[in-house]
Amino acid sequence: MVKLIINGKQIVADEDMTIMEAAKENHISIPNLCYLEGIHKIGSCRICVVEVKGAKTLQASCMTKVSEGMEVNTNTERVRKARKVLYELLLSDHNKECLSCKRNLNCELQELGKTLGVEETRFEGTRSERTIDASVSIVRDMSKCVLCRRCVTVCNEIQGTGVLNAQNRGFDTVISPAMDLPIGTVDCAFCGQCTVVCPVGALKETDAIDTVWNALHDKSKRVAVQVAPAVRVAIGEEFGCEPGTIVTGKLAASLHALGFDDVFDTNFAADLTIMEEGTELLIRLKNALTGVGDVLPMITSCSPGWIKYIEHQYPQKLEHLSSCKSPHTMLGALIKSYYAEKIDRSSQDMFVVSVMPCTAKKFEIAREEMKNEGVPNVDAVLTTRELAAMIKEAGIDFMSLSEEDFDHPLGMSTGAADIFGLTGGVMEAALRTVYELVTGRELPFDKLHVTPIVGLDQVKTAQIKIENPLKAYDYLDGITLKVAVTSGLNGAKLLMEQIAKGESPYHFIEVMGCPGGCITGGGQPRSDDVDVRSKRLQGLYMEDEGKVLRKSHENPYITAIYEEYLEYPSSHKSHELLHTHYVMRGEFNELTKERFVLQPNIPVKRVNKKGVEEEKTHTAQSDVRRKREEMVDIRILALEAENARLKSELEDALETVDIYKQVVAENISKRDLKIHII
Amino acid sequence: MSVKSNNCSCCTQDDTQKYDEIANIIDLYKDKEGSLIQILHHAQEIYGHLPLDLQRFIAGSLNKPLSEVSGVITFYSFFSTKPRGKHTIRVCMGTACYVRGGKKLVERLQDILEVQLGETTKDGKFTFEIARCIGACGLAPAIMIDDVVYKQVNVNKLESILSKY
Fold first, then answer.
1. B138 min Cα distance to partner chain A (Å)
2. If 0-12 CB within 10 Å is exposed, 13-18 middle and 19+ buried, where does residue B24 land?
3. What number of other Cβ atoms are within 10 A of residue B115's Cβ?
4. Per the structure, how many domains does chain A have?
5. Helix or strand or coil: residue A105?
6. Which residues form a coiled coil (chain B) (predicted)?
7. A92, A118, A136 — which closes off a domain?
8. In terms of domains, do A537 and A573 share one?
9. Same-domain check for residues A255 and A347
10. Cβ-defined contact of B1 to A161 (cutoff 8 Å)
11. Minimal Cα distance from A638: which residue of B?
């Protein structure tokens, strides 16, 4: 512990702390921008500078460690002035179309300007070119980027994908995939974690709101919506709730209020997934243990970011993936077949919207594999954030809605489905059903929670010994089932390396692409609460424990759909609708021709040399022409600038020469004088 | 996991040899921390420039993200991602050369070579760049072709100088 003084106040802080952390603990808030508690501190924006007695320059408080006897001032005139100048410099190369920006009033840069009391922008000059790189999942608008590099940290260190990095140098620096490749053409998993940490509107999900409004207004369509488990524990935050607040009833009510014809629950399909995936696991175990041979460990396939990751990084290991589609595409397939038949509509009449905590789901529905008879299983994916925006746009007072239920027959679910939204949840749900199916007894854990795989650790493992199974499962007698759970792609890499080396001891692995699972997926509300993960985790476990039915196989609607339509798990029908296959893509996309670039007609406003705004339609051709024109412009500008610089250099040089001439003349006259004196 | 890029369509037999050579260099430096720049230097020396396919090959062999490799390449001006000409012409744009007509040389050369600054001629003979002061102010305006300095060049001399190459 060290003693120091911040703003005249004597405080005690841990010696490992930075000034920022020590100040925060003592309720002194230091404005900052690039800093992200616990994840990212590189001091690139310098907004958090403070005055430290004895130090010549201002210090970035997010980087500077506290020390004994230190005297810090966070609010001097020098500090305030410096912050304002830094802020204005950030603005000088920022696309300030705030009113039409998706992040308007939800932007950390805007908020910071307010905090710092900045009322003018004095620096105008060359600005970074506005290019929009749109993929099916993520849109990059680098004219808004402030180079804070949070996305770089998340992409490289947290997720280990390394798709985004700083390219070029100086003013030309841009955070981008290699060689300006569009993000839809590289090995991006579309996990969207970068869109969660981006403080401005530079990285965001590809908009689906308009598509969904259009469908809702189209009288010829029957529009069904479904919501993922993790949405109900997070969307409340957009309406002022504490993180972790469960708002399932209001969520269903808001979807009815928005005008969706059918409000279904992806949870139903989560229960269905357990039936299909559990059966697949038992088949694989049987084949492996009885000498027929099969691929183990089997790995879950609910997370499309994870799927894209393995397709790029381990294309030779795709046979480890469960063949199950993800729950929302399963439900989409059923809405357009089972349900459409029930209400006597054709699959083309149905429009399915999925509300997901995920940006990668937007990519998933664009996959060829997620179509049945040419009709996509799901037509549009909204992120949790996008649905909240639609509810606000429609003028629905979310918090005052009375609770409603999801519609039948695809709206009922068990507690096992709720925990699909958190790391360890799919595994636990599967074990609840598989163990009971095999032994006839309930899973032997307190409250049915498989304790070793509960929590937010990167890799969690558990072993469950199977004794006295039912006769049909003799082959499992005495077997210790080994399972592993991981969330975040760095964790996935660890387990995949084991598999690649042939050293994986596990039978079954659950992987979720985002750290913590879907509760903190790339499409979830942005939160400044550092405990947001554990709060949402607790929320979903509570939702599970509050239900009477907590095992997927107990869901009466699941039993009914097998009796009425699918026959039995892993039947021919269910393989047709609920199972899929994967694509070998390779690290550099070299194994497939599939790309996920969008070429939308986004009007691109840019300021020309005269300061007049031009509106252009952003197409590939005009882009090339524009780029060529701009290159010429830039070259002329560069030469003109060079010319001006050299002229001033020359003037300086001439002035220097004059001065020397004078000095020489003076010296000569002095010498003359001396001579004269002598 | 790493992908041999030498079965890509752009590679010739000659390229395969170069890739092999680069692969040997990578093996040599692979386990040394911070050796990426060294490897890139050698690779550029062997291949002439560092195109995307070669970057992929290097990133794959080193198990590093491609964006990191290209980040380093685009940061340092010494590295080039485009093919360079057999010879590099650098027109000095230092103060002395500039005032004595360096700019005119640039304009004329652009016409003669039919390229813009930073580009390479279609026949692959010349890469055209400007240089900061090359320390030959007394000989202004000067141009350099590879490591030969031509003094007091004027626009009329250019064609005869170029014809030597």
1. 16
2. exposed
3. 18
4. 4
5. coil
6. none
7. A92
8. yes
9. yes
10. no
11. B117
Residue A179 and residue B2: Cβ atoms within 8 Å? no
CB proximity A157 to B under 8 Å: no
Residues of A in contact with B68 (CB under 8 A): 156, 162, 165
Residue A338 belongs to a domain:
yes
Supply A615's token pair: 């509106």
> Which CATH number goes with the domain that contains A201?
3.30.70.20
Do residue A244 and residue A359 come from a single domain? yes
Pair (A360, A491) in one structural domain: yes
Is B8 annotated among the ligand-binding residues? no
Rounded CA separation A94/A88 (Å)? 10
Spatial distance between the Cα atoms of A611 and A104, rounded to a whole number of angstroms:
23
φ/ψ (deg, to 5) at B46: -75, -45
CB contact under 8 A, A186 and B64: no
CATH number at A24 reads 3.10.20.740
User: What's the CA gap between B33 and B137, in Å, rounded?
Assistant: 42
Tokens encoding B81: 């991602």
Do A178 and A220 sit in the same domain of this protein? no
Q: Which residues of B touch A589 (CB under 8 A)?
A: none
What mean pLDDT comes out for the span A522-547?
95
Residues A635, A492 share a domain: no
Q: A167: which chain B residues are within 8 Å (Cβ-Cβ)?
A: 67, 70-71, 74-75
Residue A501 has pLDDT above 60, yes or no: yes
Q: Does one domain contain both A196 and A249?
A: no
Residue A206 CA: distances (Å) to CA of A18, A133, A147, A210, B117: 37, 10, 21, 11, 38
Question: Does A183 share its domain with A247?
Answer: no
For A383-424, the pLDDT digits (tens) are 999 999 999 999 999 999 999 999 999 999 999 999 999 999
Average the pLDDT over A455-472 and give the result. Answer: 95
A440 located within any domain: yes
Phi, psi dihedrals of residue B35, rounded to the nearest 5°: -95, 5
For residue A331, what are the domain limits?
209-397+406-578
Q: Which chain A residues are closer than 8 Å to B66 by Cβ? A: 162, 177-178, 186, 587-588
Q: Where are the beta strands (DSSP E) in A14-70?
A: 49-52, 59-60
* Angstroms from A639 CA to nearest CA on chain B: 9
**Cα–Cα separations (whole angstroms), residue A583 to A53, A181, A260, A572, A595:** 60, 21, 33, 22, 12
The reply to whether A106 falls in a domain is no
Nearest CB to B52 within list A156, A179, A639: A179
Q: Give the B-side interface with A, CB within 8 Å.
A: 1-3, 8, 52, 55-56, 59-60, 64-71, 74-77, 81, 93, 95, 98-99, 103, 106, 116-117
Pair A410, A330: CB distance under 8 Å: no
Tokens 């958190």 found at: A422
Is residue A98 situated within a structural domain? no
ipTM: 0.82
How far is Cα of residue A472 from the mean position of the Cα atoms in its chain?
44
Chain B: give the shortest CA distance to residue A515, in Å: 20
Instruction: Tell me the two tokens of residue A437.
Output: 């199916």
Which DSSP symbol is given to A546?
T
Q: At A503, is the pLDDT very low, low, confident or very high (cuts 50, 70, 90)?
A: very high
In this structure, the strands spanning A613-617 and B87-92 are unpaired
pLDDT at A668 over 80: no
Are residues A162 and B95, on separate chains, in Cβ contact within 8 Å? no
